What we know:
The chain is of the alpha/beta class. The protein has a single domain (about 5-110), classed as Barstar-like (Barnase, Chain D), CATH 3.30.370.10. About 40% of the residues lie in helices and about 15% in strands. It is built from 4 helices and 3 strands; from the N terminus they run βααβααβ. It has helices at about 15-25, 35-45, 70-80, 80-100, and strands at about 5-10, 65-70, 105-110. Strands 1-2-3 form a 3-stranded parallel β-sheet. Helix 2 (about 35-45) packs across helix 4 (about 80-100) and helix 3 packs across helix 4. It is globular, with a radius of gyration of 13 Å.
Amino acid sequence: MQTQVVTIPTGKIMDWETFHDVFDEALGFPGYYGRNMNAWIDCLTYADDPDSGMVANPVANGDLLTLSIVDAADFKQRCPEQFDALIDCAAFVNYRRREVGDGPVLALLIDGNFG
């Protein structure tokens, strides 16, 4: 299993609008991306399906897309609702895939001092 790491510049996230701007820019969601967490989950569920067009640079089948969450402690303090949704929805992407017999596709690399 290999991983493709995409850095998420959380310093640009201030609210839901900027949350979706940052992830859309980093991952290349399709033009019809709904800019809500259900749409976010839908896009990332298919991060290994090049025919779906859900992310600009899909990973190979069986590989992981790793989201490097830069300055996560600051992000969590500034935007606790968005931070919690990110954690919950990333977990749901993999749960959803496992429910249909697929392997996980998404990982989070949490970078930040929570001390």
